[in-house]
Amino acid sequence: MEGDCLSCMKYLMFLFNFFIFLGGACLLGVGIWVIVDPTGFREIVAANPLLFTGAYVMLAMGAMLFLLGFLGCCGAIRENKCLLLFFFMFILLIFLAELSAAILAFIFRENLTREFFTKELKTHYLRNNDTDLFSSTWNSVMITFACCGVNGPEDFEAVPPHSHSPSDEVTPEACCQREIQSREGIFVNKDACLTGVERFQNRQGCYTVILNSFETYVYLAGALAIGVLAIELFAMIFAMCLFRGIQ
């Protein structure tokens, strides 16, 4: 009976570690995509220290989980006590790090409010000055998502024109409608857009557009994070049980 219980524990341990291996591979893939993606996310990440750190933390966590899942599978199948103990200590550290990251994300959630982004935009945005990283990032976001400002074109009423822009410019170029939403896309009517003709502008604010685009993925990521934490917890329990059962 004891041998059957140990065998069952071994295969359960292998199963949980296989899921950790897959979860690590997914995190690794998402982290790489966020950092190298050419559609504007790379610039957003680079401009925001919090997002920049988060992307690389995700990449590191994915790599560690990927390796850890592999080691856990090997330790379970080979019934190696040294590997199992190393696995338990390593996954405990990762579990605590992920828990800390979740707590920090909750504490700093106010940095993702509409008011915060609106204040930052009005303070630091320099319109068409692409030598400024903050302005270039916002321009990329507005072009990519066919949106304007945080709430709409009215966000730029207090932002003075750039020195190389026309004096009567009301709206930044990035807010103008294009035939194809990319930097190379041809403007529908650039002059009319810049002087405030609404039908040639992207009127919807970026906050709403991006929130709607990523709302499903945010909930999915939250559910995935909870699932990963639960799997890690069970994997630690099975690792200790298997460790104690191996003679």
From TrEMBL:
Bilayer topology: Multi-pass membrane protein
InterPro entries, alphabetized: Tetraspanin/Peripherin, Tetraspanin_animals, Tetraspanin_CS, Tetraspanin_EC2_sf
Protein name as annotated: Tetraspanin
Keyword Repeat tagged: no
Locations listed in the record: Membrane
Family membership: Belongs to the tetraspanin (TM4SF) family.
PANTHER family the UniProt entry points to: TETRASPANIN, TETRASPANIN-18
Organism in which the protein naturally occurs: Oreotrochilus melanogaster
Transmembrane segments: 12-36, 56-77, 84-108, 217-243
Disulfide cross-links: C147-C176
